[in-house]
Structures are given as C-alpha cells and as structure tokens.
Amino acid sequence: MDPVHEQIRGYVRTALTRPGSHGLDHVERVTALCERIGAAEGAEMAVLVPAALLHDIARPLEKEQGIPHEQEGARMAEEYLESIGYDATAIPAIAAAVRTHRFRSAEKPVSLEARVLSDADKLDALGAVGIARTFMRAGEHGTTIADGIDHFHEKLLRLPGLMYTETGRQIAEDRHAFLVQFLDRLAEEMADRPE
Fold first, then answer.
1. Rg value, the chain, Cα
2. Backbone angles phi, psi at 144, to 5 degrees
C-alpha cells in the first residue's frame, strides 16, 4: 500500500480501538472492496482509498455523543488530511465521500469515488460477513435473533437495489442470494420446536 495510505491507516487504528460491527476489520474490508470496485470502475484511488479508510472515523463519537458519524467524520478527515499535507485538491472529494457514504444519509453521493464507497459500505452488510455483522450488532444492542432478522428485512434485503456501480451490483447480487438462502434456512430452523 502507498506509504501515505499506510499513515492514514495508522491514524484510523488509533481512533477505532474497540472491536464491533463497525470496527477496524469493517474498515479494512470496505477499503479492500473499494480497491476492487474502484479498479473496475476507473475511480481515482488518491480520493477513494483515504475516504474508505476514514469513512467511519467518527463512529466512536456518534456512540458517545450522538453526533452523526458521517458529518463529523468528514470534518475530521479534512482536518487530519490537511495536518499531514495531503493533496489539497483531493481533500474536498474525500470529505464528500465520507459525508455521503451512509445508508441513512439525506445527502447522496455524487462523484464516482463517493458512489464506490457507498456501494462498498453496503456490500459489507451483505453475504456471510453481513450475516455475522448483523448478529454482532444485535449483541451490541442487547437484542435477540428476532431483532437481527428484522434488521435483514428493514435494511439489508433492500441494499442490492441501492447500488450505484455495475461492479457493486454484481457483487451484491451474489451476496444477496446467499443472504436469502440463509434467512430461509434460519426460518426453517427457528420453526423447529420439540413437540
């Protein structure tokens, strides 16, 4: 990886110290998906990779203070990138990608890089990893398997229709099929009760 990107990764490690459904491993998977999708779609990696690494930088603050992490994260990304002398022409695009990556964000991604980040973040909620993260999230919130199932229906099953890139749509199709298969099997097993 580019030495500056490695420096950014180090900064992210200091902010995301607690494991969880939005921990450092999530950021690493989203970054890898961004590199894969970005390469296929022709994205500018000098914008995309820092945006991916920094996209959840403010998650701990959201948890502690209720600040929307996408808004605060965009501000923190700008501040940090300026402090390390990152290319000033790329910083606004990086901040915009961070600000618009979230599923619930009112502001939609406009640039290719922002759209790739949005797709990658959603893709990490699908497939086998998405299943694992859903039940991790349920545990973090002190809820049940039934609440996890509700999350699939309220959000995750809708994600393939929200992809911006063709590459994202292709990956989502495969992960969505696995998720549906899992939910069918889970419903079957949950219905099994001793007589």
1. 17
2. -110, 175
d(CA 138, CA 143): 5
pLDDT over 70 at 68, yes or no: yes
pTM of the model: 0.91
Which of 33, 101, 18 shows the shortest CA–CA distance to 64?
18
Whether the Cβ atoms of residue 57 and residue 102 lie closer than 8 Å to each other: no
- Distance in angstroms (rounded) separating the CA atoms of residues 129 and 14: 24
| CA 48/CA 113 separation, integer angstroms | 5
**pLDDT tens string 13-27:** 888 777 766 778 899
Domains of the chain (ranges, CATH numbers): 3-191 (1.10.3210.10)
Dihedral sign (CA 57, 59, 62, 63): negative
Of residues 87, 181, 167, the one with CA closest to residue 127: 181
